[in-house]
Specification:
The complex is a heterodimer. Chain A is an all-alpha fold. Chain A has 16 helices and no strands. The longest helix of chain A is centred in the middle third of the chain and has 31 residues. Classes of the chains: A mainly alpha, B mainly alpha. Chains A and B meet through α1, α3, α6, α7 and α8 of A and α1, α2, α4, α5 and α6 of B.
């Protein structure tokens, strides 16, 4: 994909038409070439997605005979219905919600308090605390997997919390790991954000006798609403897309979240790629919708941690 | 004047000791996340180091074997060095191709072309996709018999096995990973570029610098904090790469990565936990090297503030 992009880059970058405009409109030089280049790159970036949608709308026999890149004779949403009903995707979506919603809320709450402690009140070792969390988030997950697996197997839960009677193979395991792992990133971003808030508001509150909790919950948190919204969008996407944790900590295929269940779908329909395409589009749809609807938040979340770092 | 006294009073109040309730709140709400981070992240990381010196199959007794796992890893495990090489290639590819390309796109869009919002949205759409879905899309595009690329190349008689041929499949995976990485890098640089003071560029222009000189001598150096973050993300993403190759062929046949070897050894049939941990420790050591560099930079930034 990108190889093609590069090739286009080389051919359109010098942009012959742009040179012709040069004497007439010097400040706008290169605009035309830039547009051709950006449209070409955009098209290439969209192509895999569009292709998956296209394939999912066509019967398998047709693409098997003519390939995915052929003119359609028949288009229908049948595969979507089939993917949704026959593979029980509704159930997997539900599993994802059970994991992602509490994980996002608890992560943000805990991270906001740590960030508050690090950035807004003078406690000893706040920098060390920040490093402790930030570095933790950067470790490769595979380094943590084995000891966690062993630990979770050893922790018993009552039957009403987990039908496997242990932390292993329960939603709790995946929720906990996601929280533990993601808190670091949110602390980093929120601490950076809170440093930019005016100190005077907090000082005035302290003069009025506000305790730590009031300073956090009533004074600081409301000011962080944009950052929290941004992180919520981002964290939901990440936890939704998680693949490894669920794969390792859940053994009952019925409990898998939607992304990890894609592998199951593959086993079920290994011959019918078009059905799998429909499944993939369905899996990708929620994050794409979140992205399109909350684009501003999503991007703010990614950049909050960097531009002020 | 009244403002000044208020500020002075505020400073005194900040220095004031916490009440008992404050200490309870701090204790609980800092205690829980710290404990969680120790149990979920740092404890297991340390435990991995410990397990790497044992020969454990996950069920029986744990035997201390010293550095045997590391010796076996380096000398007798055929998949190890290829995996190291693949990970290094992955870092190099993201760092030398995807990251500069993302920067290039950001610079183009930042110049204020029309429809820039549309281009932005399209270019970072892949960032929200799960790598498992990306892996599947790679199959749709690169499949042997009906794959789009082979259809366009029209080589039905002698199709290229983009994902199966171990001499090219890694490159295809790196391209697919770049598809997401480029958009991510572009967002970060776009945000950074917006915060560059335009007066700097004007000053450079007045001094007679052309666009290229202005970019490399003025803009890029002021983007230093973003550069550091992008660098860290690039390396860490490359070291963590897993989902995408696992979704394509479980990371076999030319797609061996360190993360895959770890997973195979500890949750595979063999369940060689000690050995898998040794690989994990190797990965941990490399990652920590980069993480520490990043933190030192952050620390310096925080001190300057």
């Amino acid at each position: 994909m990108t190889a093609d992009i590069r090739a286009t880059a080389r051919t359109t970058e010098p942009a012959p038409p742009a040179r012709e405009f040069r004497p007439a409109r010097p400040p706008r030089r290169g605009r035309f070439g830039v547009h051709i280049f950006l449209s070409a790159v955009s098209l290439l970036f969209l192509a895999p997605l569009l292709l998956a949608v296209y394939a999912s709308l066509r019967p398998y026999e047709e693409t098997a005979q003519h390939g995915y890149f052929s003119f359609p004779k028949k288009l229908s949403f049948d595969y979507y219905r089939e993917a949704y009903t026959e593979s029980g995707m509704g159930k997997y979506f539900m599993n994802t919600l059970i994991i992602a919603v509490p994980a996002v809320i608890i992560t943000l709450f805990l991270a906001a308090f740590v960030a508050f402690a690090v950035a807004r009140i003078n406690i000893r070792g706040s920098l060390a605390l920040l490093m402790f969390f930030t570095a933790g988030n950067l470790l490769p997950p595979q380094v943590l997997v084995t000891p966690l697996y062993v630990l979770f197997l050893k922790i018993d839960l009552p039957w009403w919390m987990s039908d496997s009677m242990s932390l292993y193979d329960s939603y709790w395991a995946v929720i906990l790991v996601n929280i533990g792992f993601q808190v670091g990133f949110c602390v980093f971003v929120l601490a950076n954000f809170m440093r930019t808030l005016p100190k005077e508001i907090l000082e005035a509150a302290i003069v009025d006798g506000a305790g730590v909790w009031t300073q956090f919950w009533r004074i600081t948190l409301p000011l962080c609403r944009p950052a929290i919204a941004a992180l919520a969008t981002l964290e939901f996407t990440w936890i939704y897309n998680d693949f490894l944790w669920a794969l390792i900590f859940i053994s009952n295929p019925d409990k898998l979240p939607i992304t990890s269940s894609l592998n199951n779908l593959r086993g079920q329909f290994f011959t019918d790629y078009n059905l799998l395409a429909a499944g993939s589009v369905l899996v990708a749809l929620p994050t794409i919708l979140v992205f399109l609807l909350l684009q501003r938040h999503f991007i703010a979340g990614l950049t909050l941690g960097s531009s002020k770092g | 004047m009244p403002q000044k006294t208020a500020r002075r009073a505020g400073r005194r109040a900040t220095a004031r000791r916490f009440t008992r309730r404050d200490i309870a709140v701090l204790g609980v709400l800092l205690g829980i996340p710290v404990l969680l981070d120790i149990v979920i992240v740092w404890g297991p990381a340390l435990a991995s180091v410990g397990l790497s010196f044992t020969s454990w199959d996950g069920i029986g007794d744990i035997h201390w074997v010293g550095g045997d796992n590391y010796e076996n890893l380096v000398e007798d495990y055929p998949a190890f060095w290829p995996a190291v090489r693949h990970n290094l290639l992955w870092i190099a590819f993201l760092g030398l191709v995807a990251t500069p390309f993302g920067l290039f796109l950001a610079v183009l869009i930042d110049r204020g072309v029309r429809f820039s919002r549309f281009y932005q949205s399209v270019l970072y759409m892949p960032v929200v996709l799960s790598l498992a879905v990306v892996g599947f899309m790679a199959q749709l595009l690169l499949g042997t018999d009906q794959g789009v690329v082979n259809t366009i190349l029209d080589n039905r008689n002698d199709p290229v096995d983009w994902l199966g041929d171990s001499s090219i499949n890694l490159w295809m995976m790196m391209l697919a990973a770049s598809w997401r990485h480029t958009g991510y890098v572009m967002i970060l640089y776009l945000a950074g570029l917006k915060s560059v003071d335009p007066a700097l560029k004007e000053a450079a222009a007045i001094d007679g610098a052309n666009e290229r000189q202005t970019f490399f001598r003025v803009t890029l150096p002021t983007l230093r904090p973003v550069n550091v973050i992008v660098g860290v993300i690039t390396v860490i993403e490359a070291l963590r790469a897993f989902d995408i190759v696992y979704a394509v062929n479980k990371g076999r046949n030319g797609l061996e990565l360190l993360s895959v070897l770890i997973t195979d050894n500890i949750i595979g049939e063999a369940s060689r936990i000690g050995f898998g941990s040794a690989i994990a420790v190797f990965l941990l050591a490399v990652s920590l090297g980069f993480i520490v560099t990043f933190l030192v930079q952050e620390l310096r930034g925080a001190r300057e503030k």
